[in-house]
Amino acid sequence: MAKEQMLTVHEQMMLDQKRRNAKIEEVVKQVLDKDLQGYYDWMGINSLLLIQILRKLDNG
To answer: pLDDT tens across 10-33, in order?
Structure first.
């Protein structure tokens, strides 16, 4: 019984990780798309990218 519960918890953790990864990829794509449109200069993209990712993750 305990082994089945652990597997379920592990599976849930894997699903949560996949969701987080998908969300990060989506945010990165959005930010890079904006950069390609000329909203950000090349020097600013790294810090802006990090800020955007952290804000999106913080806001859920």
So the answer is: 888 888 888 988 888 888 788 777
